[in-house]
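Case study B.
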Amino acid sequence: MTGRRWIVVAFAASVSGLAAAASLDLGRLFDVGRDLRTATAGVDEPEEIAVGREVAGRTLGAAPLVPDPELQAYVNRVGRWIALQSERPDLPWHFGVIDTASINAFAAPGGYVLITRGLYESLSSEAQLAGVLGHEIGHIVQRHHIKVMQQSAAVSAGARAIQRSDRGVLANNLIGTGAEVMARGLDKSAEFEADRIGVVLAARAGYSPYGLVEVLHILAARSADDASLALLFKTHPAPGERLTQLGDALAPRVAALPAGKEPALRPVDPKTPPPVAAKPAAAEGARALQQEEGGTTIPSGASPLPGGGGGILRGIFGR
Amino acid sequence: MILPHRALPLFRLALAAAMLAGASATAQQVTLERDSPLYAEPRLDASQVAQLKTGATGEVTGKQGAWLNLRTAGGSGWLFSFNVRFPSQQTGTSDSGTGSAAGRLFGSPRGVSVTSTIGIRGLGEEDLKEASFNAGQMKLLDGYAVTKEAAERDARAAGFAPVSVDYLDAKK
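Model:
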């Protein structure tokens, strides 16, 4: 054990016995202790990237990338440009659109951002995409998920005492089973913070700052029992509450913020088949079936004019 | 449709008008989430047309940045978009028709809506818990990544340049 690690252990022990146990565990897992700052943070950048890569890979195991290389490259160009406006421009940023009808977006530590096709196809401008990606980039820049992982690792430290020698088991304890960390909610305050960061990063990149506001309006107008939003609504504060918080933070700055650009969004290649279901859910699937029965995909090239009430948001926030 | 270049702005205006006119009056209606002044122009220092109360309704006739143009009983003017809510779309459990409307609702302007896929609830908590690492997909993801130099070159070619904007403070 190096001298520095002794300092870490002594520091942690002075906080509490539990914290000391967690620090020891993380120390063994990641060989921390390179300096006091990163050691007390528990996970340094290379390790954060390794954890995020594992989580992203598992998420892709649940929902693969949309088979549209041009779309994926486009989202990477937009996302990387926005990430360049953050404090962590040199992370190995990866962006992907995953092939599920669910409406959601995910940030894994170290620079991995995945947006679902369901959310992507709900958007109508690149500024809206910039707001969504900016929100996820905000989680990564602020290390929100790593902090949550460390907290849950600390809680279960005692129970894991007998497994300390097994790195694989410990990694699983930090990340959890599969990609369940992506289904765990963060604190409300972390979501509000990511919203504020998302708006600013989009604006810094030259987009309208209000793309994310429009997306929140779109989400707020979706029914609370919409199956495609179940996970998003479970893990995030209500969109209306996010609008209120973001509005309060934005209001004093509205006059000074640049107008920004609102380019058209690149559509998913119309030849791309609809998402393949991992498996239909029994109860939820039946309900969704009932809801969607008779629901048909509007043929490509059909009039974009809203036929019903629902078109209004697209009319206002669309091109 | 192919239009002469000069006709495009006019066409867009007509399209926007048609979109607004095409939606029913109730659908365009928004409800105030909090008491808010209605401004004559989309600026905080513009003169106030009216002071609207929480629960008041208005009809949206346009947007500009953070602002919505509203027609209300108290007059027409501009309001912060954060201060209103659009009507919630009800997905009825027995009326199949409303479900399809929700499916069409926010599809891309090209009209392809993945949410109308029958019987699929998409990516849920259980799928994520049970997921295992997909090396092939990660290889694809790596292949799509772009360098920061390439991202910057493409953004600048599209007319983008970094803008200095301070982070927002949370409301105390």
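The two ends of chain A are 61 Å apart (CA to CA). The remaining cases will be described in the next quarterly update.
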